[in-house]
Write a structure and sequence with these properties.
Structural class: mainly alpha
Radius of gyration: 38 Å
Number of strands: 2
Strand content: under 5%
Order of helices and strands: HHHEE
Number of helices: 3
Strand order of the largest sheet: 1-2
Helix content: 40-55%
Distance between the termini: 116 Å
Shape: rod-shaped
CATH superfamily of one domain: f41 fragment of flagellin, N-terminal domain
CATH architecture of one domain: Up-down Bundle
Largest sheet: 2 strands, antiparallel
CATH class of one domain: Mainly Alpha
CATH topology of one domain: f41 fragment of flagellin, N-terminal domain
Length: about 190
Amino acid sequence: MRVSTTQIYTQGVEAFQQQQVKLAKLQQQISTGVKITKPSDDPAASSRILQMEQTISLNLQYQVNIDLAQARLEVEETSMASVENLVFRLRELVIQGNNGSLDTNGQQALSQEIDERLGELLALANTRDNNGDYLFAGYQSMNQPFTRCRPVRLPTWSTTATRASVRCKSAKPARWRSTTLVTTSFCSCKAIRR
């Protein structure tokens, strides 16, 4: 078989063109800093790259979720510490109110402070996080979880008459015990029942 001069020249030109394509591809890789510009360059490597990009995306989302949860837990922890302090103060006030030596003015001052502390407790129970969701509302985080019933003034009782009935929105009677304390009641409709 004879090889003509034209065929040799054609093969040489084709080799030059292939080298130019390779050179253009290398220059593009150098200029962009990316080895694989399209999936057909290396299908196996493209598949691995896509998997890694998905993994990175998931990890970034997990980190965002962790940061949000951590911020929410810090707000909850602060709120719970404040609630604990309020409960201790309320306990002190109740013990102080059981003292029989308080006059009417002392009882009223104590009642007013208890009412203020209960208002603070209600505000803490309705604390919102950075997104505006109520912390202690469960899955209904857009609805205010706690409300205060209409305040009811309880009479001053002697030690013999220790029960009074209080009506709340649910119209279910709740029994409250006291000795000599005049106070504004924080109604939860799940009071001490007798």
